[in-house]
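User: Could you check the structure of this?
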Amino acid sequence: MRSERTIGQLPIVVYGHSITARNLWVSFLDFTKAYKIAGESAILELQVTGEKNNANVLIQDIQLDPLSGKVTHADLLQVRMDEEIEAHIPLEFTGESVAVKALGGMLLKNTDEILVSCLPADLPPVIMVDISALATFDDHIKVSDLKISSKVKVLSDVDMIIAGVTPPRTEAQMAELEEKAEADVTKVEGVIKETDTKTESK
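Assistant: Sure, the predicted structure tokens are below.
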């Protein structure tokens, strides 16, 4: 049974380079609010009772309750502001693609984050991807096309395609997909019928 001291508190582990790992408790409400805003790509200040200076940390990993979906544990990486760190930065897709809106294509996203390295203060919370550059089905956006500060080094493959647009399926393709789906259903029904027959014979 949890003690009164831990009610409304979340267990966390704080670790880092040349730092002894510590098991601490933080306010569950404060943590969830901070995580909702900062995610895993923004520096947070952690105030520890009895310590003069706040610790600069990144949320590295969280564990969720499989039933409620609530956070049950978190790992925090304590960083030095004068040392570069590596982090996965989420991509935010903005704008409007002509190939999607006017030509009826489907936007394909190959990744939703990229890996970068920089000083903690220069860490971008998010990187914008303007899909208005996708005017035709031959257009695509690579990592090298992203607008990123010169203070940030990209570690992901710069030639990796982030997004593109596929043309709409033709009537023939749609008919072929429907036929395949019907064939798959028939196979499943056949298996079910066969199983039922065996059951009855017993």
